[in-house]
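Sequence decides. Consider this:

===
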Amino acid sequence: MYCFKKAGKTYSNFCESLLVKMLLKILQFILLLPALCLFYLLVWPVEIDPVAWDAPIPPAMENSFAKNNFLKNVEILGLNDGIGPEDVAIDDNGNMYAGYDDGRIIKYDKTGNRIGVFVETFGRPLGMRFDLDGNLIIADAVRGLIKVDMQGTLTVLATESDGIPLKFTDDLDIANDGKIYFSDASTRYGIGEDRFDLMEHRPNGRLVVYDPETNKTTTLLDNLYFANGVAMSPDGTFVLFNETYMYRVQKYWIKGEKAGTSEIVIDNLPGFPDNISSNGKGIYWIALFTVRNLLVDNTADKPFIRKMIVRMPESMQPQPEPYGFVLGIDSDGNIIYNLQDPSQDAYSPITSVKEKNGILYFGSLTYPGFARIKAPK
């Protein structure tokens, strides 16, 4: 304690009084702090407007979902070239294209050697496919639907549908007639805000189609719960798409008696379905971001609690468990393949899976590299 001196006299009483006042102030703050924290958690304004819903009880990890280690020995490529190669596209020569979170799409040869930056979207590339003319079509969460030719020339194809801007362009697939079917995960929240969409649980997503003949973009379905992966059937009669926050896959009929209608193919999955792809031979590969989260499910019917959770620091909010998880289903939702790696060092979260020439390729939203492994026979 520093005491003032003046004219040879020490103001000890003053020092003692000052010390007491300081201690009282500290004590008042300590007593007030819990009340301030409680006030913040209860009433501080937040962006989300959550609704109550009934989350289904997660299926047991047995039988069709039995734990296994198939994905334990994946080969990781492009390690430390960037963060979050969310999807991987493979051309006819076996070259691989991975889209990173800084907007770069890096090209690799079939052995995994880096060739160089193919293009920079200056956005966030997510789902990617090659069209019949060899152009790379990209669902960019920031910039919309994009086309890049083999010379690296970038063209923005769509930034809105039916007058509503594309807020979170997510995944895509291309029909034999050239039409591009893609998802707008949320018309309310953009990339990096997906946890808000999760905790709000409102149907902000939609399934959209772009026609290159007319350059017109049309919304096929809206009111979807985080519309995500998109996969065409080989004959073009339907498209499968994932609703991440409803743990399900739906089928939208393009041709036939049911054209223009949709139906649930598989429901109550044991994890959060992300991208989906067709291998062209009747199997649809589903990437599961992670297994179900009990806190998320248990607060489904408690929107007020979910508001409180969003007010917490992000590090204290529900976090994805490290878990490698991929399912292969047929067009009716029957589970044909169940590939997992439950270890703490698993390649995860897996956000995309594609099969090409007997190899499965995996992308991840946050891992510093993409991966591959021989497809199961």
About this structure: The chain has four helices and 28 strands. The CA atoms of residues 329 and 335 lie 4 Å apart.
